[in-house]
Design goal:
The complex is a heterodimer.
Chain A lengths: L12 E5 L3 H4 L3 H10 L3 E5 L12 E3 L6 H14 L5 H7 L12 E2 L2 E2 L2 E2 L4 E2 L26 H9 L4 H8 L3 H12 L8 E5 L1 H4 L4 H14 L10 E3 L6 H6 L21 H8 L15 H13 L23 H9 L5 E5 L3 H4 L3 H9 L3 E6 L22 E6 L8 E4 L4 E5 L12 H18 L6 H4 L13 H9 L1 E2 L4 E2 L23 E2 L2 E2 L21 E2 L27 E4 L4 E4 L76 E6 L15 H6 L4 E4 L1 H7 L6 E6 L2 E9 L6 E3 L2 E3 L1 E5 L33 E7 L3
Parallel strand pairs in A: 1-2, 1-8, 2-3, 8-9, 10-11, 11-12, 22-28, 23-25
Antiparallel strand pairs in A: 4-5, 6-7, 13-14, 14-19, 15-16, 17-18, 20-21, 22-29, 23-28, 24-25, 24-29, 26-27
Helix pairs in contact in A: 3-6, 3-7, 3-9, 13-15
Chain B lengths: L3 E6 L8 H10 L28 E9 L2 E9 L8 H5 L8 E3 L6 E3 L9 H5 L6 E3 L4 E3 L5 H4 L6 H5 L5 E5 H17 L5 E3 L10 E5 L19 H8 L9 H21 L1
Parallel strand pairs in B: 1-10
Antiparallel strand pairs in B: 1-8, 2-3, 4-5, 6-7, 9-10
Classes of the chains: A alpha/beta, B alpha+beta.
């Protein structure tokens, strides 16, 4: 989240799209409810009518996978009806930047597309530069090559009629959403967008998030209290996991993973440190070398010296994507021999689980650390497989639950909150820290005894977490914060980190979380900041530098006056020559520095040249769709990877005419281990079910409570039918298309068992992140006989 | 202790059912064996209140003129200000269905309860459920064992949206009226349920966002049966020592028989 949970209460309008916040993030509704008590409107945009929709002032149904068409339509309406915030666009975004005239777009493709590589060469996706190398601008936004006019041209194709025929949302509802949410374009108003996996789990997932951000920029809602672009993260600490580099393409603090091209540290830093000529652009990532070298010092301590590139060569270098799908494809092909699954259950949660379960059978060994024997740990007990034919050696490590261990979690609002162990773990269950520490100690012994191919990364690690039975979690937290290595004192802030090896920091964005003043994440002071908007700056700690609303310079005009004085985030005190309120995005006086300090240009990018699939979001159909793309002859995102090979069948609408989507419910969580083993929750939702409209049920001869068989090109499941008015067919170009919905929590283990919805989902991912397309695919439904 | 109440502002309910689970957790009640969903209209489970379920969220799916409403309601003991169940409880000299002096909570004293079912028979909302195995009446206790220790009832404690609020009854009523004003402004048709019902009202104060017709299982004009006096009269001669569930059952059956005859006559 750019903002945080409590801040939702400051919104004048709450747009929930690609998220079912009421069901999956119930606590968000504490603050949505408060906003509504203060007069805010709630809009729910969702393929199905959910418990979120039940509370909404406006419910707008859209077909799964059509967010870009929908928001493009809304933005087109806002621009053509002059309902956007022009001052904000000029002062805080790249709207005025002039784009190179060689850039173009035709029939669904941007310039530079190479169909054999399924990639773009991005040499035309660039700004026009002046003689100083600074992008040319037109603050009147009238130049036909300025980003704003190019965007306007791009959006002009998304007429209400077209958008309605793509999304299935009636035109009058699109207008109602545009007008209601568009009202937050007034300078002193703000609207917040809450999104989640309904947004991201598409072949256009990244562009889905981007288009919400663009809508927020158009209305001047980023940086504001009650504004921003707010990801409802899927697990309590998943923000922490991305912050700490659990994704394959990132190290900690969003530093990029080295690629094979980056053979030396110098090459890596050259490739990943952005340069920019405009002195008013802070271009914060120019500090990359300080953060990278400090990270290497945290990893390898005294062994990391200038002479050996601070042990840079110990880092693996990517030659291909190692995302979830790629990993399981490689496992299926026998290229991966071992897997450690900690708190993860891909045999239920992964896409195309029939293939992923089969891939597990090809492993030599599997280590599973979890609270129960999951479907992954016990894949060989799957009633559909013969354990005698499986040679995989499985190690089950009993793990401690979150309330059984001390440490921090980082919530969606970037708050790092320290928690204490409430109870001891049962039996032999151990904390993740203990488990990883022991594995490391044993691996180190093995390498010491028999050096192996490449022992350095292991043998030279700095690994100092005390001498107790349980590694000292405070020493871990301090290492993350980092040290001044000359004095041995904890670093006070990341601005002091250096690239000469005299400082360390395990994660630069968390530098200042554990200082000589103590553990900031453990703070529990309920005093609010002077602006009284619910920042509570002394409750826990928030990255970066305890800034509760990021991009907050954009909440003020260029004189430092807040756009919304009644809910100001920061403001400039001219007498004392300093900002007050939240921690500002840089101390520079108003007008002296651009507001979006993390963007190289200093302005929020409406022209997204960093993306794989285009600088402007364009609608493409999901891999499996019942209709032809009405926007262009490019049916699917032209830059997604199409996985060939066994068990990657793609369904067509003649055999599989019904749209399917998957989701979570309040009563169960993720792959279900913690909830399908809890009798109180099993009571609430004991069985796998599939939701469908009355019209589909009638057509298929299905009654509420019947068992039905749902099939896709990849597999089938059996589930109880919920026949409900909450599901309706979509009217696309005059024809009705049915959809069904499936919770994906069920599996063959636990108190509550059921078929896994992910037996149905495809192995295909987003063009930028490879997040699987769980949310839109094709199926057929028949009544189960017998 | 001032008279306490719980506000149930159902417009704010997201049917997360944290209250249903928290109730089971605090009262140490087991999960029930269920299959699929107990009722159409949503995800309700189990089918009704039981000795293992004192609080249940009901779902109502209503579609009119292409406008879909998905409404939710917490189903449980209303904690009447003037409780008929206490009057009906035949156990003497200390009633098994009892009003906790300290907190005002109406709850079952399991040591004394004989499971006769009189409390259910005379409850205007037919709430208490008899555990026939244990021969005990069961229902929401208003968390008297939390209230007495300065804690909020478990359901209100966990409610994420402040749909459930615990407080002094006069303040809760004030909040209910404010909620009604807000809902009217939004074009809804809110109803307060529990302020004046049974003339003295209840301590569960519902704000329902739509008219009572949308909640067909909620009595429109709850009443205490007129023969409650007769029932007490008939039981008087038996005293305390010989009173059994079977005997009370016979009396209740007799009253029902007379009632049915009268109904046939009229």
């Amino acid at each position: 989240m750019t903002n945080h949970w409590i801040d939702i209460k400051n919104a004048d309008c709450v747009l929930i799209i690609g998220s079912n916040a009421a069901e999956n993030h119930p606590i968000s509704f504490r603050w949505v409810t408060k906003a509504m008590e203060n007069g805010a409107k709630l809009i729910s945009v969702d393929p199905r009518f959910t418990r979120t929709s039940s509370r909404a002032d406006i419910y707008a149904p859209i077909r799964p996978g059509t967010d870009i068409a929908f928001i493009n339509g809304v933005m087109c309406y806002l621009i053509e009806n002059n309902l956007y915030n022009k001052e904000y666009l000029v002062d805080h975004t790249t709207a005025s930047y002039l784009v190179d005239p060689t850039f173009g777009f035709n029939d669904g493709l941007f310039t530079g597309y190479d169909p054999t590589k399924r990639m773009y060469a991005k040499d035309t996706w660039k700004y026009q530069l002046d003689e100083n190398g600074i992008p040319k601008k037109d603050p009147t936004l009238s130049d036909s090559q300025c980003v704003f006019q190019l965007l306007r041209k791009h959006l002009s194709r998304y007429t209400l009629e077209k958008v309605s025929n793509v999304t299935g949302c009636p035109p009058e509802l699109i207008v109602e959403v545009a007008k209601t949410y568009g009202a937050t374009g007034a300078k002193d108003k703000s609207g917040t967008i809450l999104y989640a996996m309904g947004t991201t789990q598409h072949t256009v997932g990244t562009q889905n998030v981007r288009i919400y951000s663009m809508l927020q920029l158009l209305l001047g809602n980023v940086g504001m209290a009650g504004g921003g672009i707010n990801a409802m993260r899927g697990e309590s600490n998943v923000q922490g996991s991305t912050d700490y580099g659990l994704l394959f393409h990132l190290l900690t603090g969003y530093l990029k993973t080295p690629r094979v091209e980056n053979q030396t540290l110098a090459q890596y830093l050259e490739a990943t440190t952005p340069k920019f000529n405009d002195p008013k652009s802070v271009n914060w990532w120019q500090n990359t070398p300080k953060y990278m070298v400090s990270l290497l010092k945290a990893y390898w301590g005294d062994n990391a010296q200038k002479e050996n590139e601070f042990c840079y060569q110990n880092l693996p270098k990517l030659s291909a994507n190692c995302d979830h799908i790629a990993m399981f494809e490689a496992m299926y092909d026998g290229k991966i021999k071992g897997l450690i699954a900690m708190g993860q259950n891909p045999a239920v949660g992964g896409p195309n689980v029939n293939k992923e379960r089969k891939a597990l059978q090809k492993l030599d060994w599997l280590v599973a650390a979890d609270l129960w024997e999951t479907e992954t740990a016990g894949f060989w007990t799957d009633p559909e497989v013969d354990p005698k034919k499986i040679k995989t050696e499985v190690f089950m490590l009993p793990a401690a639950a979150s309330m059984e261990k001390e440490g921090s979690i980082t919530n969606s609002g970037r708050w790092m909150q320290w928690r204490y162990a409430a109870v001891h773990p049962p039996g032999d269950a151990k904390s993740d820290l203990w488990i990883l520490d022991r594995i490391y100690q044993e691996v180190k012994k093995l390498y010491a005894a028999d050096a192996g191919v490449f022992p350095d990364p292991i043998l030279s690690l700095a690994w100092n977490y005390g001498t107790g039975e349980e590694p000292d979690v405070h020493m871990v937290a301090k290492e993350i914060n980092g040290y001044d290595l000359a004095t041995g004192k904890l670093m006070a802030k990341f601005a002091d980190l250096k690239d000469d090896g005299t400082t360390s920091s395990g994660n630069w964005i968390f530098c200042a979380s554990y200082t000589e003043d103590g553990n900031m994440a453990a703070r529990r002071d309920l005093t609010d900041a002077p602006n009284n908007i619910g920042l509570f700056p002394k409750w826990s700690w928030c990255w970066p530098v305890n800034r509760r609303i990021i991009y907050n310079r954009a909440s003020c005009d260029l004189q430092g006056n807040p756009y919304a004085p009644q809910k100001w985030v920061i403001k400039w005190n001219a007498e004392e020559k300093k900002w007050t309120g939240d921690v500002p995005d840089g101390a520079a006086p108003p007008g002296a520095a651009y507001s979006f300090i993390m963007r190289t240009e200093g302005h929020a990018r409406l022209f997204g040249f960093g993306l794989a699939d285009g600088p402007f979001p364009e609608h493409y159909e999901p891999l499996e769709s019942p209709v032809k793309n009405l926007m262009s002859s490019q049916q699917n995102n032209p830059t997604i990877k199409i996985w060939a090979g066994e068990m990657n069948m793609v369904g067509t609408p003649d055999k599989f005419p019904i749209i399917a989507t998957t989701y979570r419910v309040t009563e169960h969580w993720q792959a279900g281990q913690m909830t399908r083993n809890n009798p109180w929750l099993v009571e609430l939702m004991p069985d796998m079910f599939v939701e469908m409209s009355n019209s589909l049920a009638k057509a298929k001869g299905v009654k509420h409570g019947d068992k039905v068989r749902v099939s896709t090109a990849r597999g089938h499941i059996v589930a109880y039918a919920v026949v409900t008015n909450r599901f309706k067919p979509f009217k696309l170009n005059g024809k009705a298309y049915e959809q069904i919905g499936l919770p994906w929590h069920f599996g063959f283990k636990g108190l509550a068992k059921g078929d896994s919805a992910n037996s149905l989902t495809p192995h295909v991912g987003d063009a930028n992140t490879n997040i699987p397309e769980y949310k839109a695919f094709l199926c057929d439904v028949v009544k189960e006989v017998g | 202790m001032a008279e306490k109440a719980i506000l149930l502002d159902m417009e704010k309910c997201i049917a997360c059912r944290a209250c249903q689970v928290a109730c089971k957790q605090w009262n140490e009640l087991p999960g029930e064996k269920t299959t699929f969903f107990a009722a159409a209209g949503g995800y309700q489970n189990p089918i009704g209140l039981s000795p293992s379920t004192y609080n249940l969220i009901k779902f109502y799916e209503v579609e009119e003129q292409n406008k879909l409403r998905w409404l939710f309601r917490s189903h449980r003991c209303m904690q009447c200000v003037d409780p008929a169940c206490v009057k009906a409880c035949p156990v003497t000299p200390v009633k098994a269905m009892t009003r906790d002096e300290n907190t005002g909570a109406i709850h079952v004293n399991r040591e004394l309860c004989i499971g006769c079912g009189a409390c259910r028979e005379y409850c205007p909302f037919t709430i208490p459920v008899i555990d026939t195995q244990a021969e005990k009446s069961t229902k929401c206790t208003f968390c008297f064992d939390r209230l007495g220790n300065g804690l909020t009832p478990a359901c209100a404690k966990v409610c994420p949206t402040n749909c459930l609020v615990f407080g002094d009854r006069d303040q809760i009523l004030e909040m209910a009226h404010k909620a009604v004003e807000r809902l009217k402004m939004k074009g809804r048709h809110p109803v307060i349920y529990g302020e004046k019902e049974l003339s003295t009202g209840t301590k569960k104060i519902f704000v329902l966002p739509e008219a009572l017709d949308y909640y067909p299982d909620l009595p429109k004009n709850p009443k205490v049966s007129e023969d409650l006096g007769l029932f007490n009269e008939l039981l008087k001669p038996f005293g305390t020592l010989t009173l059994t569930a079977a005997l009370v059952g016979m009396v209740l059956a007799k009253i029902r028989e007379v009632k049915e005859k009268n109904e046939v006559k009229s």
